[in-house]
Amino acid sequence: MAALFSLVQLPYAPGNFYPDSTEYLTQVYGMLGESRADGRDKAIDAFCDQYRHKSLVLEPAGFHAKTAEKNAQNCVKRLHAQDAQGPDTRYGPAITRGASIPATRYEDIFRSRPGVAVLYLPGVAAFGPRAGMWLTTLAWTLLGAVLVFLLLRRLGTSPAVAVLGQVLYLILPIRKWAMAPLSEGITLGLLMVCLLGATYLLTGERRRGLLLLAAGFGVGAFVKYSQFLLLAAAMAGVLAMVLLVRRLGGRRPAAGNEPGSLLLLGVAVAAVVANFVLARLLHWPGTADTMQDLLTDHFRRPDVADPLGGWLHANLTFWHTWLTDQLQEPFLLVAWAAGAWGVVRYGKPAGYLILATLLAGLANQVGHPNLSQGDRIYLAAWLLAVCGVPLLLHSFATPRGELPAIPAQTRRTAGQQDHEPAPGSFHASPQPT
User: Coiled-coil regions in this chain (predicted)?
Assistant: First the structure.
């Protein structure tokens, strides 16, 4: 599936190059030792090159080489004319398709994501800006899809059902933004690392789970700390609710599973605190900056006096428009409903964790109620459909009352017997040889 997806994407590569892409690219050139002026020049050239060649094979209808070259040259001239603006910025005014953004605070938003530039650096150094960034996004998209497969297998689904989850990750609207040279593909891949780590932790593989959680949240803090803070908070909330409901209902968790849940709850709370403290120590932009960015058109206008009121009004406008659009074409709502149904029918804490991606995605959208790119901001919420729909099929294929067949654990210490299940794992009765 990964090879097929790569072949299908190849003719359209490297595709669109976004203004945000240049923010990461200028940081990459700085890490490669380029001067600020040279790095900006190369970023401008990469941005304007898309007017010449948007794809390797399939040019858009009506493409004319002379017109494309003229448009590229005009793009370079326009952006170089803005070089003197924003003298306080590190890399110059933001590269856009329209009016420049000469605000230091806008640049600081991207400088708070140094991990994105670090992860793009090898590809850019080896293959150039556009091809290198495209290959990096392709690698992270494929990684995310494989992690979905591993997650579903860990939850006890058949290989065919797990492949379905992988395919959904690659063909749903996730693909558009995951394959763009932005931070979304990397973020989604790291979200899946966290989700898989949490699943391992809840199903007995504590060491592997903790390592994946440390890697996912550790790298994620330097990629997009706000999204991983929200994911950690959502994980903690979902786990706390599951444990509370089971306690109030008089249901005891399976042997060994409650300690795993409590450990994961502690890890999630620690991740929230760590992201918050790190952002404060490094003076990364926070909620107030996000509100002003939204309400001042990326700091082109003076700050508003009542950012909270403006943010609330923007949310009302966004969600009214969003809900109207979704009810007219309810594919997303149906996908979320099917995913949630699958999670509920699965009925285990490791499955309920998938709901945290929906909460984290929607919370991110509440913080950034931008109508022009809503589907990009709540992208994490699609993971509910990606993982939940296969679980729904799995639940219908599994006899009612039968526990999910989570794979048997390998020995964690030399003293354990081969047939001994790890704490917290669910296992069927031994089958005759």
Answer: none
- C-alpha 398/C-alpha 392 separation (Å) is 10
Predicted local confidence at residue 412, as pLDDT: 45
Please give the mean pLDDT across all residues of the chain: 88
pLDDT for position 431:
43
- Is the pLDDT at 361 greater than 90? The verdict is yes
**pLDDT tier at 400 (50, 70, 90 boundaries)?**
low
- What tokens were used for 378? 């709540």
Contact 198, 350 (CB under 8 A): yes
The values of phi and psi at residue 216, to 5°, are -65, -50
What would the pLDDT profile of 169-205 be if each residue is shown by its tens digit?
999 999 999 999 999 999 999 999 999 999 999 998 9
Q: Which residue has the tokens 């849940």?
A: 261
How far is it, in rounded angstroms, from Cα 124 to Cα 425? 43
- With contact defined as beta carbons under 8 Å apart, do 335 and 387 qualify? no
Q: Model-level pTM? A: 0.89
What are residue 101's DSSP bridge partners? 94
pLDDT at 380 over 70: yes
Calpha distance 286→15 (Å, rounded): 32
The rounded distance, in Å, linking the Cα atoms of 61 and 207 is 53
